[in-house]
Write a structure and sequence with these properties.
This protein is of the alpha+beta class and 170 residues long. Helix content is 49%, strand content 16%.
Length: 170
Amino acid sequence: MYTDQVMDHFRNPRNKGKLENYSAVGKVGQVVCGDVMWVYIKVGEDDQGREVISDISWETYGCAAAIATSSMVSEMAKGKSLDEAIDITNREVAEGLGGLPPVKMHCSALAADALNEAIYEYLSQNGREIPEVLEQRHQRVAKQMAVLEKRYQSLLQEQGVSDHGTGSSG
């Protein structure tokens, strides 16, 4: 059973859609359930000159919990410094939604991972030092994404579809 907060974020998602002129994007997916998330961030400066997430949006293909956690993480990260945003955990995302069923906790992990991947991409693109915790998370996500991509390519081959989805055999 989902909480009222989960249902509200599912029915009235915040910051949904592809952000125009984004600074970086994080993409994650989950092999078991098939959820895929993209988190787009725009980085700006606050009044103290700190880099902050001045805008954020997301696109998610998945269940109600996946959509709700994407919405919640976007609300939590908006206006935060990059360091503060890196510290957002999946548990905090779930708590912000009043909790998730144990079987859906992976959705909050995906949302936090997508945010972290966007920050990782931003720092990498700008030749910035990557905090160790962020590097470790990125390596874990990269392994998961490699498995997901391999399974996707196998599925396409089984169906006789090219990797661009433009053809079929037979």
